[in-house]
Amino acid sequence: MNSNAAHLFFSPDDWLTISTRLALAAFAGGVVGLNRDRIKQPAGLRTYMTVGFGSALFVMLTLQAGVDFNATNALSRTVQGMTTGVGFIGAGLIFQRGGGSEPDQQVKGLTSAAALWLTDSLGTEAGCGPDHTGFRSWDLSGKDAAAQPS
How far apart, in whole angstroms, are the C-alpha atoms of residue 74 and residue 115? Predict the structure, then answer.
């Protein structure tokens, strides 16, 4: 097995690792969701926590399937499917207001959709086992979310 991927795999009986990864994923989603709740957006704390938690869970189920090279291929397919699915949900958050080609036409929900996609990636990172990249991305995304009023 590739030594670089060894930290990804864990035993199904390792409850501390399972709990930590899921809690970190829910926390990461919660940080983004609190910001969205603060500015009264329709998708908020529960939505983002659920996406982060679900992303970690999907990744962890794949990683528990077996410690071999095929599992990393399965992980890649899982992440691709999650990204597509969350993109579909994000598309549902985007609304067009105004009519057709009118000059007052506005698109709403792009930031919410992007934040949902970010939460998916943060949950995926937590599910794979957080490392320096994950903690730095959580730090930067939290600062970005706090700086964005909408």
Answer: 26
Check residue 51 and give its pLDDT. 93
* SS3 label, residue 107: strand
CA distances 9 to 25, 94, 121, 145, Å, are 17, 36, 18, 31
Q: What is the pTM of this model?
A: 0.76
CA separation for the pair 127, 129 (Å, rounded): 5
- Give strand pairing partners of 95: 108
- Nearest alpha-carbon partner for 29 in 106, 99, 119: 119
Q: Which two tokens stand for residue 32?
A: 């983004």
Phi-psi domain of 9 (left: phi exceeds 0; alpha: psi -120 through 50; beta: other): beta
Largest Cα–Cα separation, the chain: 59
For tokens 């969205």, the residue is 36
| Residue range 6-59, pLDDT digits in tens | 666 777 778 888 899 999 999 989 988 888 888 888 788 999 999 999 999 988
- The DSSP result for 13-52, as a single string, is T-HHHHHHHHHHHHHHHHHHHHHHHHTT-SS-HHHHHHHH
